[in-house]
């Protein structure tokens, strides 16, 4: 009978160890997802103090590049522009090369953190592309317009 109890205790101990390991693995996975999580917000959500408008969190702010707001430094790598959504706007500063499709009046997404003044210090800028592709018009002579 004592051998049966020992066998049951071993199984119980094994199940307990496996359970603890599964809980620990789940905690590690949750922490990894949480640290890589980036929230997408609009300028209006930031203006109203949305749930994710904390300066310590990395955010993705999407909107239209306000016409006339693009300012480039002499080196061409430091840029300032404003993202707007029709109601509110967010100033953005970025150091780097802007995407080819980036243009004033067009959609863009800037990823970064808010500084104390409410300016988004971007580490990445993405340009939204038009979903409606139209090929260039073809001339009868065979060349593109």
What can you see in these coordinates?
- With 145 residues, the protein is an alpha+beta fold.
- It has two domains: 1-37; 39-127, Nucleic acid-binding proteins (OB fold (Dihydrolipoamide Acetyltransferase, E2P)).
- The chain is built from two helices and seven strands; from the N terminus they run αβαββββββ.
- It has helices spanning 2-35, 43-47, and strands spanning 39-41, 59-65, 71-72, 78-84, 89-95, 107-114, 120-127.
- A five-stranded mixed barrel has the order 2-4-5-7-6.
- The longest helix has 34 residues, at 2-35.
Summarize the structure.
The chain is built from two helices and seven strands. It is α+β, with helices and mostly antiparallel strands.
Write the layout of secondary structure elements.
Blueprint: H1 2-35, E1 39-41, H2 43-47, E2 59-65, E3 71-72, E4 78-84, E5 89-95, E6 107-114, E7 120-127
Parallel strand pairs: 1-2, 5-7
Antiparallel strand pairs: 2-4, 2-6, 3-4, 4-5, 6-7
Distance between the termini: 92 Å
Helix content: 25-40%
Question: How much of the residues is beta strand, in percent?
Answer: 25-35%
CATH architectural grouping of the largest domain: Beta Barrel
Radius of gyration: 26 Å
Key descriptive features of the protein:
alpha+beta, OB fold (Dihydrolipoamide Acetyltransferase, E2P), 2 domains, 29% strand
């Amino acid at each position: 009978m004592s051998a049966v109890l020992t066998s049951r205790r071993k199984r119980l101990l094994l199940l307990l160890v496996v359970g603890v390991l599964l809980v620990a693995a789940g905690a590690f996975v949750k922490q990894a997802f949480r640290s890589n999580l980036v929230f997408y917000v609009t300028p209006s959500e930031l203006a109203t103090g949305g749930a994710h408008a904390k300066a310590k969190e990395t955010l993705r702010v999407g909107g239209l590049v306000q016409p006339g707001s693009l300012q480039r430094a002499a080196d061409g790598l430091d840029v300032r522009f404003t993202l707007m959504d029709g109601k509110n706007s967010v100033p953005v500063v970025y150091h780097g090369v802007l995407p080819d499709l980036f243009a004033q009046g067009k959609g863009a997404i800037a990823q970064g953190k808010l500084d104390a003044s409410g300016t988004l210090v971007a580490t990445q800028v993405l340009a939204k592309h038009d979903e409606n592709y139209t090929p260039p018009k073809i001339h009868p002579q065979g060349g593109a317009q």
